[in-house]
Amino acid sequence: MPWFISTIDMRILLFDPFSGAAGDMIIGSLLDCGADEDLVSKAMASVAGKPTIHRVDRCGISAIKVETHAEEEHRTLKEVLSIVETGKAPDEALEMAKRVFLRIHRAEQSVHGKSSHFHEVGADDAIADVIGACTALHSLKTDGVAVLPVHLGRGFTRSAHGRFPIPAPATMAILCESGLGISQGNEKRELCTPTGAALLSEFSTIRPADVAVASIEKNGYGAGSRNPDDTPNVLRVSLLNSEAVPAPAGDCVDILETNVDDVTGEVIAYTLQKLMNSGARDACAIPIIMKKGRSGELIRVISHPEKTQALVEIMSAELGTLGIRCISSVHRSLITRTIMDINIKFGDRNYTISAKTGWLNGIPSSVKAEYEEARACAEQEGIPLRLVTRKVEEKAWQEIEQRSV
Fold it and tell me: Around Cβ 244, how many Cβ atoms within 10 Å?
């Protein structure tokens, strides 16, 4: 068989929230599935007290219980994001954590209206849970995440506003935006928290129906605080190995555009980065000639539909524009992408740098070194960036060919 049409290994996480989900349950399940416990513990301890991680029994199922030690205090979004930025975790995990809290913020605003403080989350334990979960996922270095229907409870509970229905309105708003499947149960208690819903929504990258035939490498169980006699209060996650040939894929996105001629380059650069940090798939500025010969910039943003409103608000606030064109439901063709870790050596130091491979009809079509990791290596060694990227990409091509022989 020619090397260029062979199959590749895909590592996919499959969450099964048959008993709901919460931040601590998500962390526990990922740790039980092989996430880096030391890295996760340090990340959580950097924004709250050091967590307690131990094994418990839930109706005969051995599961990891994570207990976060922090004070309860309601905070503003700005305060929460500021704390997240101080976290000792990989940059990708911290950026994901920010997006999780932006999801929660949008949900709470849709329920409570404009409010300066979080109602359902915002205490340091929630911040630690979100950073811990994002760090755990990052450490597993998977190619995708799928989430089975989220099981929901019923009844009523107490909140900052009094007696509220279960699931909490913020949880329902988050699940509505994400498009995740749900299943309604009869348990009269909260099964899925806003934090749990936001984390699963942010993690999800593929539909469960699109997961190819695969083998199970490992299962992990994260324990909730309650321990009922008749139902295991755990969240299950499975690490799957698939050897399917990559196939082209596609989805629908919105294109957001506005013209500006009175904004500085520094503001444009800041806005583009803020849009990317808030979930834009791409953002760019294109030089244009406007009416009366004035020079300006076309700001173009690629957005998934559920993020469009939040990105429109950022564009309006940062650029001061009075109108934004929204071209809805544009089909975007995608080729399958996989990420592999490449180990290289410069001088006496060893580096691990990610390389992204694009596949077209089962054939590798491109390999690109991850910029931030390659840049850090180049700065550390005092060598040209292009030397680092070339060495990483050459070795990646070699490993692709060797794996497929």
Answer: 15
